[in-house]
Amino acid sequence: MRDIAIIGFGEAGQAFAAGFPRRVLAYDNEPDAARRDQLTRAAAASGVEFCPNADVALAGAKIVFCLVTADRAIEAARTYAPLLPKGALWCDGNSCAPDSKRQSASLIGAGYVDMAVMSPVHPKGHHTPVLLSGPGSEAMAPWVDTLDMRARRIDGQTGSASTIKMLRSVMVKGLEALTAECFLAARKAGVQDEVLGSLVASSPEMDWLERAGYNLERMMEHGTRRAAEMREVVKTLSALDMPHEVTAAVADWHARIGALRLKGREGGLDQRAQTLLDRL
């Protein structure tokens, strides 16, 4: 049945779609022809039908997963709300501030689901833990079972799930930014091994070498997207009347590294750190 649609077929869209035990239609407003060809091939490899137009993807959809980027989430809700079939659920899985989610909810209406993705989508795919809230979250319950998802409903208020996600990101993406600042400086100063050894001695339960390499890879591969998320975190903290200077700096650091468009999947900490130093 063609009742599942995904708007935004990037990393998260592909990861979820590949595991869903139902036919999935996908659409991505990607202007670059080469990138669209790449997305089409990725869809075919996963058994997903990549649609040329949004109206084709959304026709007959009973549930739509919006998985664009944080800075495009409201625009997506505004653009595609008129195309949604009556009674369709709109699962907004973008990493946005609660106020941004509420703006999107005002455009979608009763079918809006605030969906917070609570860990990297690889390797778990559609089993990645998510939190649900918003007016459509109760109606989402049977779909959680149908699609074999790992989801937990918080309540019916838009913003509840996203608040948890945003405040978690203060720590997770903040640690990534600190990793880059620490280890790039340590490598440039020629003391990386000593710094690493000191951290291991202080917290031996932590695999610092693996974690530091992983954190750099996340910033290199996804820095631009993570910067957009962290700017939503700044909005979240500001709305709570909390200081947010550190988080704003984290967003800038992610954006700076992401703008380099580096591939970070190969190698480990040493190779990634040197690649970044060479480009910075």
State the major sheet.
8 strands, mixed
* Strand content range: 5-15%
**What separation lies between the terminal Cα atoms?**
49 Å
What class would the helix/strand composition place it in?
Answer: alpha/beta
Order of helices and strands: EHEHEHEHEHEEHEHHHHH
Poorly predicted sequence stretches spanning 5 or more consecutive residues:
none
Global geometry: globular
Number of strands: 8
Mean pLDDT: 96
Radius of gyration: 20 Å
Helix content: 40-55%
Strand order in the largest sheet: 3-2-1-4-5-6-7-8
Number of helices: 11
Can you walk through the features of this model?
With 280 residues, this protein is an alpha/beta fold. It has 11 helices and 8 strands. It has an 8-stranded mixed β-sheet, sandwiched between helices. α7 packs across α11 and α9 crosses α11. The model has no long low-confidence stretch (mean pLDDT 96).
Features:
280 residues; alpha/beta; eight-stranded mixed beta sheet; 11 helices; 8 strands
Topology:
Elements: E1 4-7, H1 11-19, E2 24-27, H2 33-45, E3 49-50, H3 54-58, E4 63-66, H4 73-80, E5 89-92, H5 98-108, E6 112-117, E7 129-133, H6 141-146, E8 150-153, H7 160-189, H8 192-202, H9 208-239, H10 245-258, H11 269-279
Parallel strand pairs: 1-2, 1-4, 2-3, 4-5, 5-6, 7-8
Antiparallel strand pairs: 6-7
Helix pairs in contact: 4-5, 7-8, 7-9, 7-10, 7-11, 9-10, 9-11
